[in-house]
Design brief:
The protein has four helices and 19 strands. It is of the alpha+beta class. It folds into three domains: 86 residues, Beta Barrel (conserved putative lor/sdh protein from methanococcus maripaludis s2 fold); 89 residues, Beta Barrel (Elongation Factor Tu (Ef-tu), domain 3), CATH 2.40.30.170; 123 residues, OB fold (Dihydrolipoamide Acetyltransferase, E2P). A hairpin with an 8-residue loop joins β10 and β11.
Length: 354
Amino acid sequence: MEQKIMIAVMAALLITGCRTEHSTEQAGKLEYRPAVNEVSVITLEKRPFSLQILSNGKLSAIAGSSLSFAGSGTIAKVNFCNGDRVKKGDVIAELENTDKRMALESASISLKKAELDYLDVLAGLGYSQPESAPEDVRDLSLIRSGLSASRNEYEKAKYALDGTCLKAPFSGIVANIKLKEWDSSDGKPFCSVIDDSRFEVKFNILESEYPIVSKGQNVMVTPFGKDAVVSYSGKIKNVNPSIDENGQIEVCAVLDGTPSLIDGMNVKVTVDKVLDRKLVVPKSAVVVRDNLDVLFRYNNGRADWVYVNILAANSDSYAVEANASRGAELSEGEQIIVSGNLNLADGSVVSLKQ
C-alpha cells in the first residue's frame, strides 16, 4: 500500500515539473522580440553640388622692396617707424650728408667756371654764340674748356647727395626697420616697403583635384586665429601645370588687401566649384561594407544596401552614383537611410523614427 502511495506522489511531482518547465518556456517565447533598428531617411534627388577644395597657403605682397642706402655713413634722421604708411617719394631716412653737400657745391662752382671757359674757347675760334658754331667745333670746345668733365662731376656729386636719402619707391607700409638715429649704416638693407593693396597666396592641391581648378576661379581666403570667421574673396591667377615630388600642384591666387591681412600671414584657402545635377547625400548616409562604400535604401521596413561610388565630397555631403560594376542601381525618389545605419546588414528590419 505504501509503495502505491509513493508512486502516486512521484507521478504528481513529475506532472507538476513538466507543467512548470512548459510555462517557463512559453513565457520566454512571449518575452522575445526581434531587434528592430530605428532609422531616419531622406528622399534622394539630383541637385547642384558644391565641391570644395581645402588647402593652406601663405600671403605675400604683390609688390615689395628692400631698401638700402647707396653708401655707408651715420644715420641722421629716421622719419618713419615700422607699420607707418608712406607715399611714393617720401624720405624714410637720411644719412649725415655735410660732406656730400659741400662736394655738390664745389662741383656746381666748377661747372659754372667751365661754362664760361666754353664760351671763351668758342669766341677764340671766331664764334660768339654756340648755336653758330659747327657741331665738331662745339665738341672740341667742350673738351678744351673742361665743360664735359665738369658736368659729369656735378651729376656724380648730385647722385651721391641723393644717395643719402632713402625714398619710398611706391606707396605702401614700412617694415623691418632695425637701426635708429646715429647708428652706422654699412650698406645692408635698412628697411622694406610693402605694397599691401594686393596680395598673392600660393597653395597646393592634389593631382586628382587638378581638373577642378582653373584660372579666374573664385577662392575664399581665411586667416587663422581669432578672425577665422572672416573670409576674403580672391581669384586664381595661375595654375602651375607641373606635379612636384609630393604629387601636388602649386596654385597662385590674388586678392585685395585689407588691414587684417599682412605679408607672410598663414591662411586657409577654400576653392568652390558647383557640379550640376548630382545625387547628393549626407556623409552619414555612406558606410563601408566589404571594403566598399554602401548606402542603405529603405524598402518596406527593410534596409537594402546599394554599392556606390563617391564622385566628390565637401564638408558635409557626398555626390554619389550607383556602383555599376557591382550591379547596383540608384534613382531619384528613393528613400535613403541617413542615421541608425552603422550596424545594419543587407535586409535588416528597420522602423522609421517618429
